[in-house]
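Service request form, structural biology core

Requester: graduate student, group of Dr. S.
Request type: structure prediction, single chain
Budget code: on file
Notes: please return the result as structure tokens.

Sequence provided:
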Amino acid sequence: MPTYSEIVKPELLSQPVYQPGKPIEYVARELGLDPNAIIKLASNENPLGASPKAIAAGKAALDQVQLYPDGGCYELKRALADSLALSEEQLIIGNGSNEILELLGHAFVDEGDEVVMGVGAFIVYKLVTLLFGGVPIEVPTKNYCHDLKGMREAVTGRTKIVFLASPDNPSGSSNTEAEILDLVASLPDDILFVLDEAYSEYQDSPVDLRPLIAEGKKVFCTRTFSKIYGLAGLRIGYGYGDPELVSLLNRVRAPFNVNSVAQAAARAALEDREFVDSSRRTNAVGLHQFEAAAKSLNIEYIPSAANFITLKVGDGNAAFEALQRDGIIVRPLAPYRMGEWIRISVGTESQNQMALESLTSFLSRSGQ
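Core staff response, request fulfilled:
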């Protein structure tokens, strides 16, 4: 009798698997630690939690969970349209922005199509490309920042999509608006440019590609409620672009893909500007705290425009394991070809200090 591996699509056997940050409960069980004493700084989550208004709205939505959610996310799209000065037809809501990236694969990537991205870019771009039989074209970075000229040179007649995250994950670096505009202007008219804006709310002046979308450029942007809005557990994100493109993506979107609790919480989170501003201030203080410590410890770091910092610690996996034994969960970056580095999400000031004390101890023991 054949095994499942013998009858499954052959390409699935070589498909990489996304490795998420370790949950607190896993680490507690593995190391015999008190889960309440563990600090998770691995997945770029908001250390302040979620907006109280969002939590209240989500709880209220539970009263009607016997009903299917609004399949078109009408109220949330209306709120987003008002916030972004877009039409509702330009917006699509997803089960996290990851789902929207997958919808792009469904709609545009076929066997042998090329998709351009930076080396070490958010790994989901590569996973989606491979899932649909495409060929990831990974362009080396320069000083840990995406080389947009190099990405343009990598475009061929087989290219379907160019993916760019700015700020980038896992480096935290960002490209200038001028660089991004130059890249978009140089692309052939039959190539889709996708800007991943997962961390744009942490920037004082994020890149704005809405004018290019209005001009008819083939540009699409994705955002998430997982980061500054603190709704990672509800899995909700969105994308915006030309209405025709959004209509095509809706053809491959599953019905009722976003639950009613997530829709209600996201709508309320959008309205809570005070919480967003507080989250941005907390993040700025935390980044300064980490940068000052890195300079004091004489270790290299990548200046970050996001809510995490990437530090060169010698042996990233060893640092990850050492901090984890101290109850601090961070992210090793070997899967991103950065084996000497770790990524630490910005926490509260006290959480950051505990992580730095553990890291300092590790560096001392390892002779750095």
